[in-house]
Amino acid sequence: MWQDYVLAVGAFIFSVALIPTLRSKQKPALPTSILTSIVLCVFAVTYASLGLWLAVVAQFLGAFVWGILAWQRYQQS
User: Fold this and answer.
1) What span, in angstroms and rounded, lies between the C-alpha atoms of 53 and 58?
2) Would you list the DSSP string of 51-68?
3) What are the pLDDT digits (tens) for 17-73?
4) pTM, whole model, 2 decimals?
5) Any idea where the domains of the chain sit in the sequence?
6) Alpha-carbon span 54 to 31, nearest angstrom
7) CB-based contacts of 2: which residues, under 8 Å, 6+ apart?
8) Are 69 and 22 in contact (CB under 8 A)?
9) CB distance 15 to 61 below 8 Å
10) Do the beta carbons of residue 46 and residue 20 sit within 8 Å?
11) Deepest of 18, 39, 41, 58, by most Cβ within 10 A of its Cβ?
12) Collapsing DSSP states into helix, strand and coil, what is residue 1?
């Protein structure tokens, strides 16, 4: 399905866009990072129920990146 490709590419681009934030000393607020990671996991499960497997992988990647940001923020405090 073409929708799988569109959703996967979009999610992958968002994950790549977070690379400067991963490397920066300034991090998003901890609740923001945790909530975003949880919501992206919910999206991934939803996409899995639709059989959009590339989107599932891309959403879990995004959730993982936001999880790393949450961990980094936690370490700062």
Assistant:
1) 9
2) T-HHHHHHHHHHHHHHHH
3) 999 999 999 999 999 999 999 999 999 999 999 999 999 999 999 999 999 999 999
4) 0.94
5) 28-77
6) 27
7) none
8) yes
9) yes
10) no
11) 58
12) coil
What are 16's two structure tokens? 């790549």
CA 25 to chain centre: 19
Residues in the chain: 77
Tokens of 50: 């639709």
Task: Kindly list the distances between the CA atom of residue 40 and the CA atoms of 44, 58, 59, in Å, as whole numbers in the listed order.
Answer: 6, 10, 6
Question: CA distances (Å), 10 to each of 41, 51, 57, 58, 61, in order?
Answer: 15, 17, 12, 8, 12
Name, in order, each residue with C-beta under 8 angstroms of 44's C-beta and a sequence gap of 6 or more. 55, 56, 59, 60, 63
